[in-house]
Amino acid sequence: MFITKKKLKHMLRMKLNKNLKSKKWVAQGNELFCKILAYNITVLIAQMYESGLEPDF
């Protein structure tokens, strides 16, 4: 599935809060990275359940 930058930005704003709490530039970058990582993990988990895959740890 191909996702444009605009669609990705909209999905992140809807799923996560659009405001960053950090004040410093580096901290904002880290916070944004963590939000994107958390979003990717939730999408991965949702796709696993949709596909009927079970994790084997």
Notes on the protein architecture:
This protein is an all-alpha fold and 57 residues long. The chain has 2 helices and no strands. It is extended, with a radius of gyration of 14 Å. 0% of the residues are buried.
Q: What's the total count of β strands? A: 0
pLDDT < 50 runs, ≥5 residues: none
The proportion of residues in beta strands is under 5%
Taken in chain order, the helices and strands follow as HH
Structural class: mainly alpha
Please describe the biggest sheet, giving its number of strands, its sense, and whether it closes into a barrel: none
| Global mean pLDDT | 82
Shape: extended
Instruction: Enumerate how many helices there are, as a single number.
Output: 2
Q: Radius of gyration over alpha carbons? A: 14 Å
N-to-C span: 27 Å
Helix content: 55-70%
Please give a handful of descriptors for the protein shown.
57 residues, mainly alpha, 67% helix
Summarize the structure.
With 57 residues, the chain is mainly alpha-helical.
List the helices and strands and how they pair.
Layout (H helix, E strand, L loop, with lengths): L4 H11 L9 H27 L6
